[in-house]
Design a protein that fits this description.
With 122 residues, the protein is mostly helical. The protein has one domain: Arc Repressor Mutant, subunit A (Orthogonal Bundle), CATH 1.10.10.10. It is 48% helix and 11% strand. It contains 5 helices and 3 strands; from the N terminus they run ααβααββα. The chain has a 3-stranded antiparallel β-sheet with strand order 1-3-2. α1 packs across α5 and α3 packs across α4.
Length: 122
């Protein structure tokens, strides 16, 4: 995938913030992030963006070149991923370049762990 030497502005989330987050809030946050992964194409977009180097960004056209989907479908999936907190986008002239939020996968996994391991209501 062509990256054209774009760089992402750092945007990350720290999993340590969950240490002070109650279980019910974790469950709500988990549900919101899970909406972002509720389609195989979005999971594949996350996989693509995860394997890009930290210095590389990906424009919608690059993703369209990898997925068997129309540009409009890819754009809609990117919108959902952005709205649910998985990615961020930066305008670069006539296009938007996308990057995965740093630490989001670890954050998601910790939300899963905290939400499932809660034994307080059993």
């Amino acid at each position: 995938m062509k990256a054209d030497n774009y760089t992402c502005k750092p945007l990350s989330i720290d999993v340590k913030i969950l240490e002070k987050t109650d279980t019910e809030t974790c469950k709500r946050m988990l549900a919101e992030l899970s909406k972002g992964l509720a389609h195989p194409a979005r999971v594949e977009i996350i996989r693509i963006l995860t394997h890009n180097s930290p210095e590389a960004r990906c424009i919608c056209g690059d993703i369209v070149g990898v997925l068997p989907l129309a540009q409009s479908s890819v754009s809609q999936h990117l919108k959902v991923l952005k709205e649910t907190g998985w990615i961020h986008g930066e305008i670069d002239g006539p296009r938007v370049c996308y990057c995965i939020v740093g630490g989001i996968i670890e954050y998601y996994m910790e939300l899963v762990r905290r939400s499932i391991q809660d034994k307080s209501k059993i």
